[in-house]
Design a protein that fits this description.
binds iron/sulfur cluster; TIM Barrel; 13% strand; 2 domains; 369 residues; alpha/beta; two-stranded antiparallel sheet; eight-stranded parallel barrel
Length: 369
Amino acid sequence: MDKRPLGKTGLDLTLIGIGGFHLVETPMAQVDAILNRYLDCGGNYIETAADYGAGLSEQKIGRAVAGRRDAFILASKTTARDAKSARRSIEKSLENLRCDHLDILFLHAVQKPNDLEQMLAPGGALEAVQRAQQSGQVRFIGITGHGHPAVLLKALQQFEIDVLMTGMNYYDYCNFPQVEEELIPLCRERGIGLIAMKILADGYLYRSVRHALRYTLSLPVAAAVLGINTLAYLELDWALAQEFRPMTAEEREKWLAEAPELGTKVCRQCRKCDRPDWRPSEFFALEGLIDRQMDDGSIPEPPDYALRERLKNWFNQADEARERYRGLLQRIDPQVDYRHLNVLCPYGIDIDRKLKRVHAKLGDDGRIV
Ligand code: SF4
């Protein structure tokens, strides 16, 4: 399995890592088998979080592979925002994981401006994390966030970060294009290591695993973290990573055009329908913020319906979307017929209908159309 450097840390990660979230629901014997098989194959990155199952994921990892601690790079996360809670969280993680240091400690789920302010304030979590780094309990400091990366972009300007992890997949590229267009280039420029999560968009891309992994590993990331909860999935994912070849620019475009989950409903943010004084894609990006463009008014098969309903508001950014929509509304009138724009979209999107659906979702006087 190929390894890639993690920014300036000096660590090299195998292309796929194991994420600990799903280990909470996985029986202990299976966790043991999966993690040990992963290490036997040569995998070297395992990550978890203090919050996953209130420490249960960490405890299971500690029980399964603490005896092989030198064979892998270990990361955990804390959602604590003040120094005292962060110190307790780090101590507890080390106890649960049965080790004396973490290779990476992530400040976890930093998504609201308030999260960042609290962490950076005097007596905030960053103080405790930096002290843990000085004492050797933590080697590198990371940050994670989900959805729109505005707060992560701000964090990069405010303190020294070694590693950044966020969702990266072809579906959410259409919802949060700033991840690939702004966040990744900035991290590369600063030598910050990048780790991808949510390559299947929280499971939404379950029909396209091969393409999804290939798309994400074609980005300049050190590794993609996968939620593996059976040995069969481990074998499959490992085989896919072994056969990985980067997508060319043409292959990427082709996949963005053909991906079944995108169809004629999801705006690819290509901006080919830009008007001189407004851009439909800006409206559709707000739809991405509120429900990841998932609710298109169609009635899918029951399993897809259930998945869509569960995931569409996963990142809880609706308030921000509504506020920004009020500003954008000065540029168009949702009652006007915009069907003449439809021919501009190479993906067959009914731009007029979609603008009206966005208004139904975000406008104060919105009505479902
Ligand atoms: S042309 Fe289609 S895909 Fe491109 S920005 Fe406009 S609506 Fe989105």
